[in-house]
Amino acid sequence: MARYTSLVTVAVSFERLRHLLTDILHSCRMDVIYMAEDYLVARELPGHVKFGKLVTVEVLIDRFAVQEPEVQMNIVVKNEELPLQSDNHCREMFNLVNQAVSENRQWHLIDSAAS
User: What digits encode the pLDDT tens for the residues 35-49?
Assistant: First the structure.
């Protein structure tokens, strides 16, 4: 199973964050399938890759880890694909999601760390 994570801190109100995350994930060909106050799950839309390569994105939101109006997010991008190559579909989608989060003009990126 391929799995890539990043920890991101942004300056944005907690109320706007979920709406902005939904827009970002839609722009990355994802459909939000579950949303709670501090947790969001999105799934890649089928049709571009084989079913086993479809990516799931989980976002755990921790607004209490930093000062107001900052929000910290733990983003996990994963699929059922074995990461036999460093350039695989899951890694490509991870890079796409991270780039979309980093370049979003609706908030200020404070910190980002990927693993």
Answer: 998 999 999 999 888
Comparing CA positions, the residue from 83, 92, 114 lying closest to residue 28 is 92
Superfamily assignment of 2-114 in CATH? Answer: START domain (3.30.530.20)
How do residues 47-75 score in pLDDT, each as one tens digit? 888 888 999 999 999 977 777 788 999 99
> Would you state the torsion angle of the CA atoms of residues 81, 92, 14, 70, taken in this order, to the nearest 10 degrees?
120
Angle at 94 between CA 54 and CA 61, to 5 degrees: 100
Determine if the pTM surpasses 0.85: yes
Alpha helices in the chain (DSSP H): 14-27, 89-102
- Of 109, 72, 110, 99, the C-alpha closest to 4 is 99
44 in Cβ contact with 30 (< 8 Å): yes
Tell me which amino acid residue 94 is: F
